Amino acid sequence: MASARSTLTALARSTALAGLALAGLAAGLVMLAAMLLTFLVGLVIVFPPAVRLGRAVTRLQRELAARWSGIPIDDPYRPEPPPPVPQADGWYRDGRTLYRKPTIPAFNKRWNWMTKDPATWRDLAFLLSAPLAGGFVAAAPLLAVAYGVAWAAGGNPVVGAAWILLAVIGGRWYAPWAVRLHGQVAAALLGPTEKARLAQRVSRLDAARTEAVDSQAAELRRIERDLHDGAQARLVAIGMTIGAAEQLLESDPQAARALLGKAREASATALQEIRRLVRGIHPPVLAERGLGDAVRALALDSPLRTHVTIDLPERASAPLESAAYFAVSELLANAARHGDATETWVDVSTQGPALRVTVTDDGHGGADPERGTGLRGIERRLGAFDGVLAVSSPAGGPTTAVIELPRAFRVRPAPLSPWRYLGRLCWALWPIPLFPQGLVAMVLKLMGSPVKSWFLGLRVPEPFQWPVIMGMILLGGGLLAVALATTARTREAEGGACG
Predict the structure, then answer these.
(1) Average pLDDT over the chain, rounded to whole?
(2) What pTM, to 2 d.p., does this model score?
């Protein structure tokens, strides 16, 4: 029963993907018409809505690929331009032209953003090729059933039943494969390019840099305040106490000795404050023994029962270790101060080249980065290293915080994948069955042309011509889909190995 249900689910999904491919073709034709009207006629106002339509369809493709195939695909688009900012005189500048209102500068920014983004044209290419690269491949069982129904309605129920039975039997394994293949093809065509990833990363790092500069300035002010109000005041008091002791040394040695004792106690207190301040800047145990032992030291100082698991192949760079250390310190402090927790678990390990830290506590939950300045501070500190913080804290607990810092460790390059050679073979072969043996033969068949030449679909007996032609189209589309999928798989494997 479960197997039949999964087969029916896969068949329904492959049919939906085929319908979505046709809808994508319609959206691609709308984008193509808008492009012609824009660049040939000058009707520029039709281009942005057409691009938004195409992006809505491709966004749905990415969501279905992530939901049905388990292949997450990030948005490939470059960061959206900010709204125009008026000058001191209230006018808006766009190049060498000034405008009273921001309408035209905003339109020009969005126009350049859409036309100069390669993802726009990759979306158009995907939408126009979706029926060939994925639609026919996903719809093969449905096409076989339709062909069998056509034969049965034409007076040959035996052939029709054979095609329907073939579709039912083959769909059990074919439909799940077609759904997974769709996700891989979508990842190859709709995923972000290296330039898009770089642009997005530059945008994130620019925002993180601004926050890091503000955070650093606030940290310097805090250190200055702590030194001024704490250690400096105590050192001044020590100096005054020693001066008073010098004056009393001849007349009242006992009082001078008491004052010197107070000065010694004040110096010890000032030294402790300076040490605490230094540990807050960069703990010595972190610099000398690394992140693992520094987290264990945090666990010993924590008022909670803390269980620490460390699995690190080597030390990361000092700035990354510092960011991870202070993030763990803040999370443990939040668990004790705000979460009313009694026990915490800290796991420090690697995820490929990334450093991953997981902190879980048994508190009452309810932590929200939008409302907590401590969590926002962790996000700012991690953002400077392109790191992320994910918090799961339902009401009633438990609270789990996951920190990931990419490219923290080096990973040895993986050997060349055999998928690369399969992809090259498919790239070389897919045009042959798809175009001359498939689409061209289909056009000649529909026109009733007597020319058979070397077209296999026109040389076989009449009942098998359409199956052969459609089979060639499916074969060509399948080879193209496999080529795209293997290319994406090889790129992901080799890119992940490089770190």
Answers:
(1) 79
(2) 0.56
